Amino acid sequence: MAGRRSITIIGGGVIGLAAAYALVREGHGVTLIERREDIGQEASFANGGQLSYHYVSPLADAGVARDALGWLLRPHAPISLRLRADPHQWRWLLGFLGACNRRTNRKNAAILLDLALSGQAALQTWRAAGLDDFLWRRPGKLVLYRNPSKFRKAAHAVTDPERQRTLSPAECTAIEPAFASLQSRLAGGIFSPEDEVGDCFLFCTALHKALAAEPDFRLVRGQAELRPGPGDRCALAVDGRPFEADLVILAAGIASRALARPLGIDLPLYGLKGYSLTTRPQPGILPSVSVTDYDNRVVYAGLGDRLRVAAMVDIGAEDTVPAPRRLAALRALVAETLPGAFGGGEDAPWAGLRPATPTGVPVIGRTRYANLLLNVGHGALGFTLSVGSALRLKQIVAGADARAIG
Ligand SMILES: Cc1cc2nc3c(=O)[nH]c(=O)nc-3n(C[C@H](O)[C@H](O)[C@H](O)COP(=O)(O)OP(=O)(O)OC[C@H]3O[C@@H](n4cnc5c(N)ncnc54)[C@H](O)[C@@H]3O)c2cc1C
User: Fold this and answer.
1) Mean pLDDT across the chain, nearest whole number?
2) Looking at residue 283, what is its pLDDT?
3) Boundaries of each FAD dependent oxidoreductase domain copy (predicted)?
């Protein structure tokens, strides 16, 4: 194939694996470097499972800073803030506050929508090409609003009424009867019938299985490091030993910031800690559509016979240990919203760090190093944006006039 490259991707999460799959399909040779024993063990492991193609509004929006101040005083706050003596955290927070206005939110939402929808179409091609099942369904997504003014604002922002329907409380619970007990407390909802769900870890596994069958792919287990190299190139080492690489793609989630620092690249990434629970609900309680309880920022997705619930944005928590206090708050919120969700059994608590930029827009594109591309910062939407980001990167590798993002 003309223009065939030998590409090394750092990071075996959903972003690195989707990029590897897109590039191998294009005829490139791909080496994926992953430091863990298995792929998909970090942020991509037990996320909310929503392929939220039509609802991509970044967290940074008008009124969020004011809401956050109110939330900080609530025990079940969807956002918590622990200020640290860390200039990077302050810079990130300032950038976030700077993006908390309607105009910036709309502009960034349009970028994310474009990226998401291109990926939605391509995912169907990939599935048709024989990717293993990852509990994928297209049940639609229902965003429930309790606060009337937030609902009015959301309804006003709907630009495509064919793809996003504004619903009364009764229409919401008709679409998703599992939430019937909430009807009297609802102001309304927005339903996106074309949105999907899937298990992100199983998607990673399916991509890896398909890649492993390709002669042009190899997985190398080891810790990657980057340093300035000769001329305008960067040099890669794995487990301390030099590693030959024609073109490197950095896709290492939140670790990308530390990896890029020796190169003098200051990535605007901050880890936003979030939680999930995976339950086997009582009969009749498993929601069929995917649901977001907007006011509490809790998402619900039925994955096979399990319910995946994900929530919480903890700013300033740098570990991935599920904190008992936050788990208790999440369990209480879920029990109040969807009685029977726990079915009396295990709920497999998990926490991960969303690799977030202040604006919510990922960084995809070239760097000042001729042999280094970035695919980082997918925040709360990495599963949704993984395929679209891979396509954008594929165009950049091809030298096409692809717009860099972020
Ligand atoms: C609670 C929660 C709920 C979420 N819900 C959703 C949702 O419903 N829908 C959605 O679209 N998104 C969701 N997300 C976001 C999504 O999970 C992330 O954006 C996505 O997983 C990021 O993928 P990634 O590949 O960039 O990072 P990761 O999955 O973290 O992968 C990075 C990989 O790089 C490896 N690595 C790091 N450093 C090195 C190194 N030096 N050498 C070699 N390998 C290295 C790591 O081991 C890891 O495997 C959620 C996230 C959280 C935390």
Assistant:
1) 95
2) 86
3) 7-392
Q: Which CATH architecture has domain 6-140+194-397?
A: 3-Layer(bba) Sandwich (3.50)
Share of the chain above pLDDT 70, in %: 98
Report yes or no: 49 and 303 within 8 Å, Cβ to Cβ.
yes
Probe ligand 1: pick from 8, 31, 32, 35, max atoms within 8 Å of CB? 35
Tell me the C-alpha distance between 30 and 33, whole Å.
Answer: 10
CA–CA gap between residue 146 and residue 47 (Å, rounded): 24
* Domain extents in the chain: 6-140+194-397
Residue 380 has pLDDT above 80, yes or no: yes
Do 9 and 381 meet the contact criterion of CB atoms below 8 Å apart? no
Residue-level pLDDT at 75: 67
pLDDT of 405 over the 60 cut: yes
Nearest-CA residue for atom 26 of ligand 1:
253
